[in-house]
Amino acid sequence: MSAASFEALVRRRLADEVGRCPKEAPTTVAMLYPSPYGAGMSSLGFQRIYRAINDMPGFACERVFLDDEAEQDLSVQARPRTYESLRPLEEFPIVAVSVAYELEIAGLVRMLDAANIPAHRTQRDERHPFILAGGPLTFSNPLPLAGIVDAIIVGESEELIEPVLDVLRSEATEGAPSSSSRARTLERLAAIPHVFVPAHHGVNLPVVAKVDNALLPAWSPIRTPHSVLSNMFLIETERGCSRTCTYCVMRRSTNGGMRLVSMDRILETIPEDARRVGLVGAAVSDHPRITQIVNALADRGAEVGLSSLRPDRLNDDFVAALKRGGYKTLTTAMDGPSDRLRESLERRARVKNLLRAAELAKAHKMERLKLYLMVGLPNETDADIDECITFSTELSRIVPLSLGIAPFCAKRNTPLDGKPFAGIKVVQDRLERLRRGLKGRVDVRSTSAKWAWVEYVLAQGSEAEGLAVIDAVREGGRFADYKRAFASLPAPTTAKPRRSLAIAQV
Where does the pLDDT of residue 180 fall: very low under 50, low under 70, confident under 90, or very high at 90 and above? Predict the structure, then answer.
């Protein structure tokens, strides 16, 4: 995208934003999201930290996103500049990056390269911006970032962002930058609980941070029609989860499980003029007053969206409220293709719950039922896929049905950590088996088995795998480039990472 086109695009988007509060301050932080604007402005975590930095005395925050065109054309990435001032990324003393999941590491590398900021941490010095990372990825395995960023806030960062930035600001103002001042900065950051400094900690990650419940809920200060969640005000109804699903990072054992936000607190935080409201959390439908919350918002004339609906929580009153809130498709999770596998995942979704979901969708005149599930699960067989075909066919006779499918990728900090990737061909064959079996009856859509394998290698990997992303991106960022980059790594000397096993599963 040319400079003139980018500036015109930014002007249009800024003009359409509601809630933005421009600010000038002695220290300005570039807040980087390694995906395009539409995705970044739909991230509640990104918006929460943007607001937190702007609320800090002496600090301002400017946003920068992956080039829109770069998502489709890997050879494209204009020089990154912020939305607020069009200032180039490399001119900021501090770059804070929010990484949602493993494949976004490539976006970070591409943006650093385009800004002529060395992507290798060890190749940067005091002349370069300090790269600070955080985001959802840190709850699982941030080690692939360790060779790229200078420091990582692990877990919930609302209470940590201020002391971390205070250290960075104080070091920057104590005389001319030098190698000794950068080393002192890293040493001071390493002493802050929940802050991971690769140069000091090696591979020893700290405990995941948990903020005081008084700081909940997070909410989005900016609404925009150009986000994936167009013009939607985002707010947490809870944080964490009370369930024990074996594949999920945000299960009961993470940060004390579910922490609820009261209905009154939720409703009083939502602006009266918000016509679209997104209720966000790992288990929104488990909130004990979720039906009342949705109805209260519908009474205001607001359209309501929920980030997670559990099939065992669906009942007539709840689905009626969702219909009032503008739902046209009832979306929930099947999780595994068979009842046996769902039980192994410790999911409460059973045949009776999913049948009831289909019946409720029909009764409330929803256009369709959409179910998310994984394939390539441990111990999965063709018989499980055939059960899914039979059961999905049964559901489709009740209400039009769509399946959204993702290959299973084992994540760190879960009971299924270390389980192997099923194999690209295995996953592709099972997806094709599903498509053939459901052709003409169910809409089947899936994410790529090849890119799921890349995600898996990074999810189970460490610094070496993250540095391999740099090589893959610079070779063109195609799947073949990742495959070569991972294959060129030396064999691991410890049980983790399990990269050699992942390579064998290609």
Answer: confident
Count the neighbouring beta carbons within 10 Å of the beta carbon of residue 212.
9
Q: Are residues 19 and 70 in the same domain?
A: yes
- CA distance linking residue 18 with residue 41, whole number of Å: 12
Q: Determine the Cα–Cα distance for residues 253 and 203; give it in Å rounded to an integer.
A: 22
Q: Which residues pair with 305 in a beta bridge?
A: 278
**Which residue type does 449 have?**
A
- For residue 455, give the nearest of 505, 380, 493 by alpha carbon: 505
Q: Which range marks the domain in which residue 103 is found?
A: 3-201
260-270, pLDDT tens digit by residue?
999 999 999 99
pTM: 0.94
Mean pLDDT of 226-244: 94
- Domain assignment of residue 476, yes or no: no
CA–CA separation, 451 and 355 (whole Å): 32
Phi and psi dihedrals of 133, rounded to 5? -115, 155
Quick one: 87 and 229 in the same domain? no
Q: How far apart are CA 134 and CA 98, in angstroms?
A: 5
Whether 501 has a pLDDT exceeding 60, the answer reads: no
Q: What is the per-residue pLDDT across 454-483, written as a single tens digit (0 to 9) for each?
A: 999 999 999 999 999 999 999 999 999 999
Looking at the fold, whether 364 and 414 belong to one and the same domain comes out as: yes
Are both 192 and 218 inside the same structural domain? Answer: no
In a domain, 472, yes or no: no
What φ, ψ does residue 295 adopt, rounded to 5°?
Answer: -65, -40
| Secondary structure letter of residue 129 according to DSSP | P
478-500 pLDDT, tens per residue?
999 999 999 999 876 544 544 44
- Note whether 40 and 95 are within 8 A (CB): no
Return the CATH number at 29: 3.40.50
